[in-house]
Specification:
Elements: H1 2-7, H2 23-38, E1 45-49, E2 56-62, E3 72-78, E4 90-93, H3 125-135, H4 147-155, H5 157-173, E5 189-191, H6 194-207, E6 230-232
Antiparallel strand pairs: 1-2, 2-3, 3-4, 5-6
Helix pairs in contact: 4-5
Length: 271
């Protein structure tokens, strides 16, 4: 109780109980959110807090199927300084995404449909990430922030499919661009290089280390990923590789796809 009392910022607390908390409580809240996030099953979604600020998280979404299949979308999440009592955190993509729920100018994902009002102890950051992942699989054209994308999806499916494919291609073209920041936690990618990555790949495959290894000829080193032939060399995975309950003894659920193969989730290297 004494520790809790010290956490409250008396200068901004109110009789109604809507307190603004000091840095201790904010740090505790963010750690709790990150620990809770790691317990969720969100294949293809990885995040890591910025090195310079815990209120900014870097993330990436790997889309496995649907209209945006093979898309690799990096984003930043901005968390209010009075979390968890403030507004809903914001999720902003690094580049344009042709999607009804993504603003064409700011690249921000519209979260109003899922989080009209942020509720402490009810809403969590992992729910935002799950919502963002779902947006690429179940597209909602109503109340769109990008009306052009919404009209294309509703009235011209072939045009939307073409624009979505072009969007995915553009993001993949940017995959190896230099990072826009010197933050060491920003997630970057490099083509698979046997000299650099093979030893790490073997270690993960043999020891069952809790890091997902995927991709056409590439393993995600450090930040994880799905079917994209790249290796990421910064950041940490937000969730562990999923050990399948029905896998043979010693199997860890890791996957690795050779160049030219069809992407198959949970595929394994032939021993």
């Amino acid at each position: 109780m004494n520790l809790s009392a010290k956490m409250i910022d008396r200068r901004t607390s109110t009789p109604k109980g809507n307190h603004s908390y000091g840095p201790f409580f904010l740090e505790y809240s963010l750690l709790a959110e990150y620990n809770l996030l790691q317990k969720q099953k969100m294949p293809g979604v990885y995040v890591v807090p910025s090195y310079t600020s815990p209120l900014c998280w870097y993330g990436v979404i790997f889309v496995r199927q649907g209209l945006f299949q093979e898309g690799v979308f990096r984003f930043k999440m901005f968390i209010p300084g009075n979390f968890p009592d403030g507004d809903c955190p914001r999720l902003v993509f690094d580049h344009p995404v042709f999607h009804p729920s993504v603003d064409a100018l700011t690249y921000e994902l519209d979260l109003r449909r899922g989080f009209n009002k942020w509720k402490r102890n009810v809403n969590h950051i992992w729910q935002i990430l799950l919502y963002a992942r779902r947006a690429f699989y179940k597209i909602e054209p109503k109340e769109a922030v990008n009306q052009e994308a919404a009209d294309a999806y509703a009235k011209s499916p072939e045009r939307f499919r073409s624009m979505a494919a072009a969007c995915v291609a553009e993001w993949r073209r940017r995959l190896y661009d230099p990072p826009p920041t010197d933050d060491p936690h920003y997630i970057t990618f490099h083509p698979f290089d046997p000299v650099t990555h093979e030893s790490a790949r073997k270690t993960m495959m043999e020891s069952g280390a809790p890091v997902a290894v995927n991709g056409r000829g590439g393993g995600e080193i450090g930040s994880g990923g799905d079917g994209n032939g790249e290796s990421a060399n910064r950041g940490k995975p937000s969730d562990k590789a999923f050990p399948g309950k029905n896998l043979p003894s010693g199997a860890q659920g890791l996957s690795f796809i050779e160049p030219g193969e069809t992407i198959q989730i949970f595929s394994r290297e032939v021993s």
